[in-house]
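re: the backbone from monday

yeah here it is again, tokenized this time
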């Protein structure tokens, strides 16, 4: 595809919604609550917000810059920014991360399909909190069912990817994201009016600073990168489809705010319910799947609510999986000159392979561990806590140190037609703060440099 006839998103709102679609997903509604639950509640939220503001937002803007400036896939983009150098390896970090994330994300996305089915069949009602936990564990430790749903989800993603950028990605985001938002607000209201809701709200909003340990900081940073879809060039790929009039600053700010808002809304839904129904906040990946059915049971027409909710959760997951899939597909398509269909097929097949092992790691393969982590947890850890922050750090260094400030500013201000009041602060963060902060967080977790105790 040449630079000029490269696909673009069709409208301003389409641009924002597609990027929000990538950012808002299982990361906000499934991963954020369980990470918060395992990392001390409000203390985690506080560090998370700092990471979003200081690292995530500047990095998102930088990825938008790289993508729209180069108008290339993730790997190709770095060749435009730093031609003839090894910086393009950074693009590969992103492409591999996309594969690995899809390898566990599709499994959880598959769980949402099971829950849609159970909402319809009535299996999600009339149970105690304990029964929900037991039944979930029985389901996800099984063999065929979870794998079948994973397959179904990958097939759905594959179908949208092969129908292309405008009709597939943009249209689906435009319709679904606003509905998801509305239903989250309704669930929030139900959850905060449950008995003992205040205990959950306190857990989420009242920080105990003593709980901030090195692994809490690493987890918050990983969650911020994961949730905002930054650090692996996903938004580079999307920004390569932006039009030249897209306001990159506003888009980055809107996406960041909406993404954070959705995560906090999810927390406000989950934690009051967790304490109200006597579930452990540190339950881990199953947290959302064992908490929410309890909330639905306490709503009139609970089955209907749960059906609508899981459909929307599946859609939120889908708008994220298509963005992940697109990173790898666009790379194979543009760099290796495959047709879109063939490129997408290669990606889907690879992801399915990883998905099967991840899914089985809750059951028959639970004793197969890598560095003490199950395959599912290993993929999650390596991508969110290592590859994304590492990729993000190098991206900041590349753009902060190598790119001409005039080029950077011209792209971020649409050739001087819109102001960028905080450009100097942004450039300073990119050059110094973000790389140093990320390195310190890594060193601290590795125990090589102590500024926060384990
Ligand atoms: N941000 C997505 C979520 O929160 O569910 C997950 C994700 C999508 C991560 C795209 C990384 C990415 F490139």
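seq for it, each position gets an aa:
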């Amino acid at each position: 595809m040449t630079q000029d006839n490269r696909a673009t998103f069709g409208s301003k709102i389409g641009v924002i919604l597609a990027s929000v679609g990538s950012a808002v997903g299982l990361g906000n509604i499934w991963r954020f609550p369980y990470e918060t639950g395992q990392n001390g509640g409000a203390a985690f939220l506080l560090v998370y917000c700092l990471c979003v503001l200081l690292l995530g937002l500047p990095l998102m803007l930088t990825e938008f810059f790289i993508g729209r400036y180069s108008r290339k896939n993730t790997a190709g983009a770095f060749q435009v920014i730093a031609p003839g150098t090894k910086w393009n390896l950074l693009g590969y970090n992103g492409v591999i991360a996309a594969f690995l994330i899809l390898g566990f994300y599709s499994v959880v996305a598959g769980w949402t399909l099971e829950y849609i089915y159970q909402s319809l069949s009535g299996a999600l009602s009339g149970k105690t909190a304990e029964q929900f936990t037991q039944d979930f564990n029985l389901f996800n430790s099984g063999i065929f069912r979870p794998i079948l749903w994973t397959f179904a989800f990958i097939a759905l993603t594959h179908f949208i990817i092969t129908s292309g950028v405008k009709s597939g990605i943009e249209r689906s985001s435009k319709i679904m994201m606003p509905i998801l938002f509305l239903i989250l607000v309704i669930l929030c209201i139900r959850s905060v009016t449950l008995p003992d809701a205040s205990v959950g709200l306190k857990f989420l909003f009242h920080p105990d600073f003593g709980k901030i340990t090195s692994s809490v900081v690493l987890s918050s940073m990983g969650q911020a990168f994961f949730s905002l879809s930054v650090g692996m060039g996903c938004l580079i790929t999307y920004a390569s489809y932006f039009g030249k009039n897209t306001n990159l600053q506003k888009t980055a700010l809107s996406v960041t705010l909406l993404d954070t808002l959705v995560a906090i809304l999810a927390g406000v839904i989950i934690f009051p319910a967790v304490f109200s129904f006597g579930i452990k906040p540190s339950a881990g990946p199953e947290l959302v799947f064992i908490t929410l059915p309890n909330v639905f049971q306490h709503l009139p027409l609970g089955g209907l609510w749960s059906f609508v909710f899981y459909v929307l959760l599946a859609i939120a997951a889908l708008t994220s999986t298509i963005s992940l899939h697109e990173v790898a597909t666009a790379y194979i398509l543009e760099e290796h000159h495959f047709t879109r269909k063939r490129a997408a097929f290669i990606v889907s097949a690879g992801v399915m392979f990883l998905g099967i092992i991840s899914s089985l790691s809750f059951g028959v393969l639970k004793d197969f561990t890598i560095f003490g982590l199950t395959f599912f947890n290993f993929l999650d850890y390596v991508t969110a806590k290592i590859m994304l922050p590492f990729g993000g750090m190098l991206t900041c260094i590349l753009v902060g140190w190598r790119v001409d400030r005039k080029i950077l500013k011209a792209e971020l201000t649409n050739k001087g037609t819109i102001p960028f009041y905080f450009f100097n602060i942004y450039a300073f963060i990119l050059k110094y703060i973000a790389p140093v902060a990320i390195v310190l967080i890594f060193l601290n977790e590795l125990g090589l440099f102590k500024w926060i105790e384990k």
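DSSP finds 18 helices and two strands in the chain. Residues 119 and 307 are 5 Å apart (CA to CA).
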